[in-house]
Amino acid sequence: MNESEEHMVEKRSTGISGLDFQLGGGYPEGSSIVIYGSALAGLDRMAMQFWKAEDNPGTYIMLDSAPAEGMVTPENADAATILGLMDGSDRVVVDSLSTVILEHGIDTAIRLIRDATLAVKSRGGNIMFILYAGLHAPIEEIRIMRAADVFMTLTETIHGNEVERRLAINKILSMDVPLRVFPYNIMKGGLEFSTTARVV
Fold it and tell me: How far is CA 197 from the centre of its chain?
């Protein structure tokens, strides 16, 4: 795909202006997104920024902790229950896919990604899943990477008395995979990503 074709792909805002800038407008519409990293890497804030990216928030399905205002918590984290909660929404977050894997197995998680992607793609929507590092077997992580349309890794490294945080886009549907990682900060209002000149 050349650059002009890439710009023709409809995009949905990530909710983070600096990341939208790096992605040429946001995530490809109709794609499933997996964000991967430790529980302290800012995955939850990134997911909330995506959830609230537009005037009318999407659906945030909270499986891991007490829900914030506007989130939904199903009694059962199976695929059918989760799919039923996302009807009509064009921006869905599942927090987290790790809970689905741990409670129902990897096959249920793969089926959820497949069925949810088909559902949101039919209306041009997007679905984001949080996947926590260090909880799953390598083969399970590989299957998730293959099933997702977009896969991003958030890492945190400590150098002496400084913390360095970076996002890598490992896979992205209908676009070239960027050749560099993107530094970010975790701020009170959410994640901020640098553009060529500043952090926004």
Answer: 25
**Model pLDDT for residues 57-85, shown as the tens digit of each residue:** 789 999 998 899 999 999 888 889 999 99
Predicted TM-score (pTM) of the model is: 0.91
The full DSSP string for 55-75 is SS--EEEE-SSPPPTT-B--S
Domain extents in the chain: 29-176
Map 84-109 to HEC letters: HHCCCCCEEEEECHHHHHHHHCHHHH
Residue 148: per-residue pLDDT: 96
100 near 94, Cβ under 8 Å? Answer: yes
Fold of 29-176: Rossmann fold (3.40.50)
In terms of C-beta density within 10 A (0-12 exposed, 13-18 middle, 19 or more buried), how is residue 85 classed? middle
